[in-house]
Design goal:
The protein is an alpha/beta fold and 237 residues long. It has 2 domains: 116 residues, Rossmann fold; 94 residues, Rossmann fold, CATH 3.40.50. 37% of the residues lie in helices and 17% in strands. The strands form 4 sheets. It has a 5-stranded parallel β-sheet, with helices on both faces.
């Protein structure tokens, strides 16, 4: 399986994670500060880094910067007790694959690790910036509106799932569309679904598709909205 470097200053917790990963076929090693982590990355190659965000001699951002400077393609999963969207987005924009919050759910940890390991290796070259097209609706200039657009620009470059809250008619779909337009998925489909208009009988077929003959009236294969939106953005209203 995978060689995993655990960077975590809580020795008891790190040993529990190490034992759990060993039981699931991985080969983990533990270090407890950034200095030791950088030394390990200099000496050895790892398939994945499991990185605590706050450490005695710095933060996980220091390790991400080292990874970027050295051109390492090793995927990084951030562990944090501080569920702060700005911290999370900053880490992911700096090269982290994903994050999990403490207390860690063991099944979630394995799922995220498996997904990170199956992801194609990252290119170490700098990606071309996303072209920001002009918005197709009027942007307000109030303090609240400007704050909204700051949040949009913050999350758009990431693959984080986003919850958009607001009363009916306040422009949630426009916000979702703008996030899509400013993201690296801009050239892929943006699909908006009015979930309230889906009947209980047809919701599964509409969202996930069906094959010919699956039920009465299924005369041909049908792709679901999730499949059609693959690589792009799916907005569930």
């Amino acid at each position: 399986m995978a060689s995993i470097l655990i960077v975590e200053d809580d020795i008891t917790f790190s040993k529990l994670v190490e034992s759990y990963l060993k039981k699931n076929g991985h080969t983990p090693s533990c270090v407890y500060d950034i200095k030791s982590a950088l030394a390990e990355l200099t000496r050895n190659q790892y398939d994945l880094l499991l990185l605590d965000y706050r450490l005695p001699d710095g933060t996980g951002m220091d390790v991400l910067k080292y990874k970027h400077d050295k051109g390492l393609a090793t995927p990084v999963v951030i562990m944090t007790s501080f569920h702060d969207i700005r911290t999370t987005v900053k880490a992911m924009r700096s090269g982290a694959y994903d994050y999990i919050t403490k207390p860690v759910n063991p099944e979630e940890l394995l799922m995220v690790i498996d997904q990170a390991l199956s992801k194609p290796a990252e290119s170490t070259t700098t990606a071309a910036p996303v072209t920001q097209q002009k918005a197709d609706f009027v942007e307000g200039d109030s303090g609240a509106s400007q704050q909204l657009h700051k949040h949009i620009q913050l999350v758009a470059p990431t693959d984080i799932s986003v919850i958009i809250q607001g009363d009916s008619g306040t422009g949630k779909e426009q916000v979702a569309s703008t996030i899509h337009r400013l993201s690296k998925r801009a050239n892929a489909p943006f699909i908006a679904i009015d979930c309230g208009a889906l009947s209980n009988d047809l919701a599964g077929s509409e969202l996930f598709g069906h094959v010919k003959g699956a039920f009465t009236g299924a005369l041909q294969d049908k792709k679901g909205q999730f499949e059609l939106a693959n690589g792009g953005t799916l907005f569930l209203d």
